[in-house]
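Weekly modeling sync, notes
Attendees: S.R. (lead), two postdocs, one rotation student

Agenda item 3: backlog of single-chain predictions. S.R. asked that every request posted to the team notebook include the full sequence so nobody has to chase files. The rotation student volunteered to paste the first one in as an example of the format we agreed on. Action items at the bottom.

Example entry:
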Amino acid sequence: PPRGPLHSILNSVSNLSKAESILATYTRIGCFLDNDTAGRNAYANLQRMLGDRLQDMSVHYAGYNGPRGG
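Predicted structure, as returned to the notebook:
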């Protein structure tokens, strides 16, 4: 099995359904979604599916819409 961190990067919340089976295999997931309605709704859906394995990283850019600023 691979060692070290594995990363899946989705460039749109519309891609979440494509990644659900991949994310289900991860033991810890850092979630960097935009601080808008779509991002918050996507996070809530992921949290229902993945539980405590999901970590909301938006606290690191709370004053901005998303991790890239703006």
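Discussion: group reviewed the output briefly. The mean pLDDT is 82.
Action items: rotation student to repeat for the remaining queue; S.R. to check formatting next week.
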